[in-house]
Specification:
The complex is a heterodimer. Chain A is an alpha/beta fold. Chain A folds into two domains: 174 residues, 3-Layer(aba) Sandwich (D-Maltodextrin-Binding Protein, domain 2); 156 residues, Periplasmic binding protein-like II (D-Maltodextrin-Binding Protein, domain 2). Chain A has 14 helices and nine strands. In chain A, strands 1, 2, 3, 4, 5, 6, 7, 8 and 9 form a nine-stranded mixed beta sheet that branches. In chain A, helix 2 packs antiparallel against helix 12. Chain A is globular, with a radius of gyration of 24 Å. By secondary structure, chain B is an all-alpha fold. Chain B has one domain: MetI-like fold, CATH 1.10.3720. In chain B, 77% of the residues lie in helices and 0% in strands. In chain B, helix 3 runs parallel beside helix 7. The radius of gyration of chain B is 23 Å and the shape is flat. Classes of the chains: A alpha/beta, B mainly alpha. At the A-B interface, helix 1 and helix 14 of A face helix 1, helix 3, helix 10, helix 12 and helix 13 of B.
């Protein structure tokens, strides 16, 4: 009896041991494995392939996956009905994945379906940032697009299309601008050099967010690093260019004592906007659409104004990618053509407070006037994976100085 | 089949489900992470990821910083929780009754919301500094500072630790304490010679939970902490999610796990001792 009891005690001690370790276990499992898509994100499989063999009048249905904040969902909720009204033979099944919950698994699923020989895996059209365009280019999952299939593709700046090797449609953009409190700052800097001087002359009144946590800070960091490099460098994704970053990092390091809190870089784009709103700083780099939207919702004071500097901060287009293995490409092309039409682009501009994906000369006069001045000097960076290298080096050299 | 054998079998059957779940959701991922962390940049297996962990100055600072925050947080949480639990046990007043009713509230407030609340309260231009302004008091920097992380840890951990300790202290018979008082024991004497030893097991449980909670915390250190040094949870997320170095992140995870298992070892040993003593 005594022996048996000991066995049970040993077993329960083992169970306890595991229970205690569970706290750490969840940590390691988080970082050890790519999160698998939860059941909630799975597409409705029943309707999956039913429409591929569309006969006669039946509409062709394709699945469009996108991620982002609520405003992105609102945008598509407006655009898709507009499109379907004009094109009754195509049905767009939208699958919205809220920001931060599963963008990575969506891409993983596309790749997994390809590797398993399962075709498109019911993800026909996908929306995401430049990272996934490059990643997908490497993995050969995106279809090369041409003006033959999508006439309105001609409305897009050629250089921008070349940057992504015609693998994706940059259908909208938002730019990082300088946001400043006009009650405190009368004469905002117009060039990057003026901005750097301003920061040094007003210690603690400027903040940029940790570049690995948001595009606004990342844009400031990248712009400073590429300040004295030739203009073509921003389309260069060859690691050889990294040796020319030293001067830029030196500048960033020197700026440390002059930025907010002598070297505090808040997390996320919203982190610096909060500081600007409660008056702790007077100037920040910020996404134009975030500032404009929060002002329209009265979350941000009207005294905050935007200013573009030269050379401009980079803007980030958002791309639509067509799955190479999709069997509904004609319907998708029809949809993309609509998204790039001036009418649709106008909706995008109004809803998202962003920049149109097509060139301004194709937009209405009213729109052209709206973007006069702000859109000038707007640059697109395409440095591929080098962005990660910048973040890494920033963390070890600037944050941990 | 003898009765004992049957009993033992039933015991195994009843333990099996939780054991299997632990195997699938805890043990297997740990092994997987460990294997992954051994894969170096050149694809060969070895300890290069762990060398990188200690070779990098920033990462060394992160580890040291995490340990400091964890030790300070654990000490403060347990000190305050013990004091609170004793107060709730021995004070009959109305204040104690109110504290008893309300001290659990922080457990029901989601972490992100509490963290933003703390930022609004304690920030440079926050509520507290505005209230203190007329008195000419300027607060030191709390948000974007280690102090902020410790305060957030207090907020998150005190209610649970107090709850555990209260129930342990409530289990100590009043007669024992009264008789000690009768023979002239002082307050400190009663605490250290009667209450603390009798609630030591629960103290260990509370310490384990607070330690694990703090060392793996993410939300508060991410939003309140400095950019460098970072808590390990934040660093892990950055290495995994931003730098996309899965193997390096796995190495940090395994290392964090080792830190936790050191404490887990003491905990289990003391439990096992007790079991042995009972038999």
């Amino acid at each position: 009896m005594l022996l048996k009891n000991k066995n049970i005690a040993g077993l329960s001690a083992l169970t306890l041991a595991l229970a205690v370790l569970a706290g750490c276990g969840s940590q390691s499992s988080n970082s050890g494995n790519a999160p698998s898509p939860s059941a909630a994100e799975a597409p409705p499989s029943s309707s999956a392939s039913a429409s591929s063999s569309a006969s006669g009048g039946d509409p062709v249905k394709f699945h469009f996956y996108f991620t982002g904040s609520q405003n992105v969902k609102d945008l598509w909720d407006t655009l898709i009905p507009m499109f379907e009204k004009e094109n009754p033979l195509v049905k767009v099944e939208e699958v919205y994945i809220p920001s931060g919950t599963g963008a990575e698994p969506t891409y993983d699923r596309i790749l997994a379906a390809k590797k398993a020989g399962k075709g498109a895996g019911d993800i026909d059209l996908y929306e995401d940032g430049i990272n996934y365009v490059t990643q997908g280019g490497k993995d050969d999952v995106w279809e090369t697009l041409s003006t033959g299939a999508i006439p309105n593709l001609a409305n897009i700046n050629e250089q921008t299309m070349n940057d992504v090797a015609n693998l994706a449609v940059p259908y909208r953009s938002s730019a990082v601008l300088l946001a400043y409190n006009s009650d405190k700052v009368n004469d905002p800097p117009k060039t990057l050099d003026e901005l750097l001087d301003w920061i040094r002359e007003h210690p603690g009144r400027f903040a940029y967010n940790d570049p690995s946590t948001g595009g606004a800070g990342s844009s400031f960091v990248t712009t400073v690093i590429y300040k004295d490099l030739p203009p073509e460098a921003i389309h260069e994704s060859d690691p050889a260019i990294m040796s020319q970053w030293d001067a830029g990092f030196k500048t960033l390091k020197e700026l440390g004592p002059y930025v907010y809190g002598k070297g505090i870089y808040p997390k996320k784009n919203q982190g610096t906007i909060d500081l600007l709103q409660n008056g702790e700083v007077d100037m920040i780099p910020a996404w134009s659409d975030m500032v404009l939207q929060q002002q329209s919702e009265n979350l941000l004071s009207k005294s905050v104004k935007l200013q573009q500097i030269t050379p401009g901060f980079n803007g980030g287009p958002t791309y639509l990618m067509v799955n190479k293995l999709s069997d509904k490409k004609d319907a998708i092309y029809q949809f993309l053509n609509f998204v790039l039409s001036p009418e649709a682009q106008e909706v995008i501009v109004n809803k998202m407070n962003g920049f149109p994906g097509i060139e301004l000369s194709h937009m209405s006069q009213e729109m052209q006037d709206k973007f006069k001045g702000v859109a000038e000097g707007f640059r697109t960076f395409n440095i591929g994976d080098l962005g990660n290298e910048i973040n890494k080096r920033w963390q070890s050299e600037v944050a941990a100085q | 089949m003898s009765k004992e054998r049957k009993q033992a079998l039933w015991g195994l059957i009843m333990v099996a489900p939780s054991f299997v779940i632990l195997l699938v959701v805890v043990v297997f991922p740990i092994v997987q992470s460990f294997v992954e962390s051994l894969r170096g940049e050149d694809g060969t297996y070895g300890l290069s990821r762990y060398e990188a962990l200690f070779a990098d100055k920033g990462m060394r600072a992160n580890i040291w910083f995490t340990l400091q925050i964890t030790v300070v947080s654990c000490a403060l949480v347990l000190l305050i929780s013990y004091a609170l639990a004793l107060y709730l046990r021995f004070s009959p007043g109305k204040t104690a009754a109110w504290i008893r009713r309300t001290y659990m509230i922080p457990m029901f407030i989601p972490g992100v919301i509490a963290t933003y609340g703390l930022m609004n309260l304690l920030g440079n231009h926050g509520w507290l500094s505005r209230l203190l302004l007329p008195f000419g008091v300027t607060l030191p920097r709390i948000i974007f500072d280690p102090k902020g992380i410790v305060i957030a840890n207090l907020w998150f951990n005190i209610p649970f630790a107090t709850m555990l300790l209260s129930s342990a202290i409530a289990g100590i018979p009043g007669s024992v304490i009264e008789s000690a008082r009768d023979v002239g024991a002082g307050r400190l004497g009663i605490f250290f010679r009667i209450i603390f030893p009798l609630s030591f097991k629960t103290f260990l449980v509370a310490l384990t939970f607070v330690f694990m909670g703090v060392i793996g915390s993410f939300t508060a250190p991410f939003l309140i902490g400095e950019n460098s040094p970072q808590m390990l949870g934040v660093a892990m997320e950055q290495v995994f999610g931003v730098f996309r170095e899965r193997e390096q992140a796995a190495a940090i995870a395994v290392f964090t796990f080792l830190l936790c298992s050191a404490l887990g070892f003491f905990y289990i040993r003391s439990m096992a001792k007790e079991e042995a003593a009972r038999m």
